[in-house]
Amino acid sequence: MLELPYDEKILLQRIATGDETAFTTVFNHWHQQLGDYVFRLTGSVSIAEEIVQEAFVTLWTKRELLREVDNIGAYIYRLCKNRTLNQLRNLARERLRNASWVNITEQSSGGPDLEPFFQLIEEAVNKLPPQQQKAWILSRREGLMYEEVARQMQLSRETVKRHIQLSGRFISNYVKQHAELHTATAVVLYTLL
Length: 193
What we know:
This protein is mostly helical. It has helices spanning about 10-15, 20-40, 45-60, 70-105, 115-125, 130-140, 145-155, 155-180, 180-190.
């Protein structure tokens, strides 16, 4: 690790008082190392950039806490590590949701008649705004991860995530309004996965 060009404690005190130059010094010193660290954990440049950016935003917005910090490197690495672990958990949940959806659709041929259920979902999907519809189809039907959908749609991952969340809510409400209780419950459970 490289050493900061200034006394660390003085830099932290200056940042705590709102000194943007001191913050820029810390940012320039740490952002590449942190990006490399997060990239090794996630394998994704865009996720690494997002996490490092969020860590520095947190560092700035909670700068008054820096008066109590002794080691800026350990502090900011911990911020990135925690965000990375949260991100990896979210990606695992997303994969589980996609796998559950594929499993439900594959099992529908041998179980109870779920055709009305799928027709209601189709109707709801067809009523979605175009961007939400495309994000939903790429994620839920084609099994792409948010990052892959974002790349295809040329949107940020967070925008894609929001489109899919809004789509899920709309589909759930639509099915609730048009289906029997047991079918609506299944959709609600699916969207909560």
